[in-house]
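Exercise: predict the fold of this chain.
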Amino acid sequence: MKGLYKFLKNYRLECFLAPFFKLLEAAFELTVPLVIASLIDTGLANGDKSHVIKMVLILVAFAFVGFGFAATAQFFAAKAAVGFATELRHALFSHIMKLSFKETDKQGSSTLITRMTSDVNQTQAAVNLFLRLFLRSPIIVFGALIMAFTVDAKAAIIFAVVIPVLFIIVFALLFMTIPRFKKVQSALDKLLGLTRENLTGVRVIRAFGLEEREIANFEEETGKHRALQEIAGKISAIMNPATYIVINVALIILLYSGAVRVESKALTAGAVVALVNYMSQILVELLKLANTFISITKGLACANRISAVMEIPEGMEIQVVNNNANDENTTAPTTEGVKDKEGSIGKNIAVKFSHVYMKYSEGGEDALEDIDFEAPFGTITGIIGGTGSGKTSIVNLIPRFYDAEKGTVYVAGRDVKKYDVASLRDMVGTVMQKAVLFKGTVRENLKWGNDAATDEQLKEAMNLAQITGIELDREVEQEGRNFSGGQKQRLSIARTLVGKPSVLILDDSSSALDYATDAALRKALRTLSWKPAIFIVSQRASTVQHADMILVLDDGKLVGKGTHDELIKSCDVYKEIYASTEQA
């Protein structure tokens, strides 16, 4: 929670003015019972109409002034709370966008979405209530106690007994509800994850007719969430009757003892009314304080969950070695500069894997084992294997979406861990398995590859990606819903080609293309003027068989490496894949 205070620094004045005006309102509220006492004892008892009218006008004035102070306090509290939430949400979104793939996988999308929506909203509400009521309620409770002693010290002893009893009830119930509200938020994470999963896979669910099963699963999770809410709600519900019982017993004692003393002329009727008003104020403010504490504890729980995400290190750590001046430079060199340079990796080598091992989660099995190969600039490397064999895992290590557990991945002669991540990813262009387009125009989507690209450069990239009949000004709906799968894949490839990366990765990005278009695309890639190292990941042997080198994977191991002709003779796994895909 500590780290979130900085988001209030621009609202220091509002954080001071909100409770200040609430305290002014409280001061007027504490004076009201004394005015009423005067109205009864002096005005009504003596038949002094002018005094009654004067006191009534004072009460009306207090009401308007108090309302003005309350509205002003609410304005400043809302301004501070909304401003705090806005800055926090922006910072949290920015931080999440910079997290590594490993961390986003570990946290889960549903959890991160909950942090940015529900948790931030709860924290905003807690800040608002804290600024308005956290000081006001205790001031009125203890102020009413002090004022009761000024009215009548003997009667005020009842207040001195009641207030500690009420505090014990309120805080005992609070300590019982706080951990349960934390469980409610965790259950909300699971419910959101299930909802997201169902919405994402709604087509598959309908295709297999499993709507009823998913509805049952959703109802089960909703039932668990409801049960947790009900338990917390039932405990909280005890608060009102418990506090009302104590207050009503105190009022009975106060009224009885007050009536006896009024009869004996030891106390005035106005004083009894004032004491009853102060007792009522204590009840109302304690209930407000209890609700405030519940909201604040919810907000603190949510704030701690947000802080836990904010404390996750951003991106990937850069390793800097001081004994070599070249290693200290973390920016990516140009392709030409690398090609002309002799290094320890060898001339013209774009990517090198040196005995690389990799796993996705701590304690899990290795996704890759002892991967070792070199890929020069200007060549095409095909990567093929069955589902789950590690094809995507290999190419994810090149732009450093994930880190190797053992071994080293080199790009342009340098360990990827010694690059600035932004520079490395400017150098490595990746077309993911799932083609993703963003709402806007085709031009805006393509300029993600290079914001300074001209229309001619965009059209050139589209031609290379075999895109015809699509205008740059054509609107793109969210996720490219108004394009076919093949069009989305080709637009994704064009977007990457616009940036002219030194290393180009096509991760099964032509699966939706027909054989003729796929062949034309591969032919066009051979003509790229800047001669990048190209990696083509595919499950179809026809897509990679003309590559300069083919890597064959099986269960995370490199079981074959060479050209199509070499592998068809020496690698059983490749022969099996080739036979199955060609026959298909």
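Check your answer against the key: Confidence is low (pLDDT under 50) at residues 321-328, 334-345.
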